[in-house]
Amino acid sequence: MSDGHITSTKKDHITTIEFYHPAQNSMPSYLLTDLVDHINQAGADESTFIIVLKSSGDRTFCAGASFTELAAIENFESGKTFFMGFANVINAIRKCPKIMIGRVHGKAVGGGVGLAAACDYCMASKYASVRLSELAVGIGPFVIGPVVERKIGFSAFSHLAINAEEWQTAEWAKQKGLFTEAFETIEQLDAYLDHFTASLVCKSPEALVALKKIFWEGTEHWDTLLEQRAEISGRLILTDMARDAIKKILAIV
Predict the structure, then answer these.
(1) Angle, vertex CA 72, rays to CA 66 and CA 73, nearest 5
(2) Contact 26, 62 (CB under 8 A)
(3) I need a labelling partner for 213 at 20 to 30 A (CA). Which of 120, 183, 237, 244 fits?
């Protein structure tokens, strides 16, 4: 449980939340819980106007859920609890009164795509390919489905959900609305992120809060919806097909 961490740093009314895990920035349950706390704290901080969400390193942005934890699930309740991890993060971002900017420097898989989609504004490098791999392991992108579909539309979401083994490029994700930009280099991404946030933080904080509320209109039922979706995954992860798929993945890793 000591592997990985979440850090928050604040400068010029911008709080940057950064997550790290040695397994390709995957997100085990304890990191997801910690991430919710960091989001809530930044959201409640009156001196924070903008939140930036990023991950460490120069390779994978987020490899999604922990397969080690998936393999350890033995009953429906523990399965539901596991899948509520990303549900709680999505709901924390949804309810947070501050605009959240996503910085995606590398590949995003499963829940990593959900994190990018939950951000109110998300920019990436050309290395930020995306994939929803859940169907390949006997489940589906049920929990993150609403936030991904909300951002890129039903057609693109169904494409990702069904084509679970092929990567889509950052340019594809930009065309579908997941990313606002897909920069040639990470250096260009960071330079623009600094420029953009410095400009945005000078705007009316009250207007930004009001915009955030408008952006998420119609999602007031998501506490219940995402819990229901977690229950679907919690049941499916117990099937023989899912268990066998996860064992094969862990054997390769």
Answers:
(1) 95
(2) yes
(3) 183
